[in-house]
Design a protein that fits this description.
174 residues, 13% strand
Length: 174
């Protein structure tokens, strides 16, 4: 059986500052790439890169929390490899609207004409998967993937997250 991703990793404390900088830099690069795709025919690609950039911001925040929580020579960073944990951590730094990718489509009512489009927070993992991928929901015995990514929403949120990264880069430096 595979090791559960939420188990975390143990890092030397002195490696944390560089890890924070690297995660923030990766986040910025992913978000800048997403911005280039946001007005192209590759909007879903922009949303994927945006999501990965937000996860990297969450990773940087997890490393910062570990850095300030102890002076021990090694630190445990639980959930370091878990997408949902990183998104949730980033969600704590951003407004809920800054995590949106677009409208959420209610597949349950798709065929009867009562489909609902609204906003759903990006930290909800199933909503994010719905926006980015076609998938099978075994519990409901139906397809997921009817949600729509919105270019205006993604572009505005890229700018918002980039501004936060610039702020955190200076706050979290040595």
């Amino acid at each position: 059986m595979a090791k559960k991703k939420t188990a975390g990793i143990v890092l030397p404390r002195e490696a944390l500052p560089e890890g924070i900088r690297l995660a923030l830099d990766r986040s910025r690069v992913l978000l800048e790439a997403a911005a280039h795709l946001a007005r192209s025919p590759h909007l879903t690609g922009a949303a994927v890169l945006f999501s990965q950039g937000v996860e990297e911001l969450g990773k940087a925040a997890m490393l910062q929390d570990a850095r300030v929580s102890t002076s021990a020579p090694t630190v445990n960073v639980p959930g370091f490899l878990d997408h949902q944990v990183k998104l949730t951590k980033a969600a704590g730094l951003l407004s809920e609207s800054a995590l949106m990718l677009g409208g959420y489509f209610d597949a349950e009512n798709y065929f009867d004409g009562d489909a609902y489009f609204g906003e759903s927070p990006a930290e909800d993992w199933l909503v994010r998967l719905d926006l980015l991928y076609a998938g099978w929901d075994e519990s409901r015995n139906e397809w997921r993937g009817y949600s729509q990514v919105n270019a205006d929403v993604v572009e505005a949120n890229i700018r918002s997250v980039l501004a936060l990264i610039a702020k955190k880069r200076s706050e979290w430096s040595d």
